[in-house]
Design a protein that fits this description.
The chain has 245 residues and is an alpha/beta fold. The protein folds into two domains: 49 residues; 167 residues, Beta-carbonic Anhydrase, Chain A, CATH 3.40.1050. Helices cover 47% and strands 14% of the residues. It is built from ten helices and five strands. A five-stranded mixed sheet has the order 2-1-3-4-5. α1 runs antiparallel to α2.
């Protein structure tokens, strides 16, 4: 019915303004071609995936999940699981939202930590983050739902994008340290903050995952020796840094 109505409208436009009607038809055809192309590619790549694995692989997945890490990343389409692992199935409990936040995905994160008992909680920010860019500007014209998610990112407005990304990751780790203090002190959970820098804004390599925080420790020299760092007694939980934005 919707398609018939749209066609009738386009026909009416064709009579009133032939050139504009032709543009509308062309746009509709292009959009339809994009959708069909996407679906065909999706099906084709899925066939390649499932035929490339033995039935035993899926039989094991069907039994249960025992992920190693709860991973909180941004929803940005440029950040994908294949950048972190070649075989993430059953290993990474993925949570995605605007700005890789704890506050707007607390239930999902809690499920990973408390129900799946992942020994790692990993927050991953990324270069050229739109959420961080929005915080540095005026997002008052965004929808209420988007504003609610942006409002919980508490970083200063005057930071460069990559500095804001790092500050936000540190804040997420700090907030999670408060929430999961008991698990951290018991040695059951390790919190990690990282930046996936596909733009090489940190000048350490395009596409590199840079660990910038482990259980509140941000000294890169100490982070270079994770074995020593994790062997030390757990530090008291730190309060998240809140700066006006």
């Amino acid at each position: 019915m919707k398609r018939i109505f749209l066609s009738a409208c386009l026909a009416a436009l064709a009579i009133a303004n032939p050139a504009r009607a032709l543009d509308g038809l062309s746009s509709e055809k292009n959009e339809m071609a994009t959708v069909i192309g996407f679906i065909n590619t999706l099906k084709s790549e899925n066939i390649t995936y499932y035929t490339g694995h033995k039935i035993e692989f899926f039989a094991e997945l069907a039994k249960s999940q025992f992920p190693t890490a709860t991973v909180v990343t941004c929803s940005d389409s440029r950040v994908q699981t294949n950048m972190l692992s070649h075989n993430p199935e059953g290993k990474l409990f993925m949570v995605r939202n605007i700005g890789n936040q704890l506050a707007t995905a607390e239930g999902s994160v809690e499920y990973g930590v408390h129900h799946l008992h992942t020994p790692v909680l990993l927050f991953i920010g990324h270069s050229r983050c739109g959420a961080i860019a929005a915080i540095g500007g005026n997002y008052s014209k965004e929808s209420p739902a988007i504003r609610r998610e942006l409002d919980t990112i508490t970083i200063a407005k005057d930071l460069t994008n990559i500095a804001g990304v790092k500050a936000n990751v540190h804040n997420q780790v700090a907030a999670a340290m408060l929430k999961f203090d008991e698990e951290i002190r018991a040695g059951k959970l390790t919190l990690i903050g990282a930046v996936l820098d596909f733009a090489d804004d940190l000048h350490l390599g395009a596409g590199k995952l840079n660990i910038i925080n482990v259980n509140g420790e941000t000294d890169l020299t100490k982070l270079a020796n994770l074995e020593n760092l994790l062997a030390k007694p757990k530090a008291p939980a730190a309060s998240p840094k809140k700066t006006a934005h």
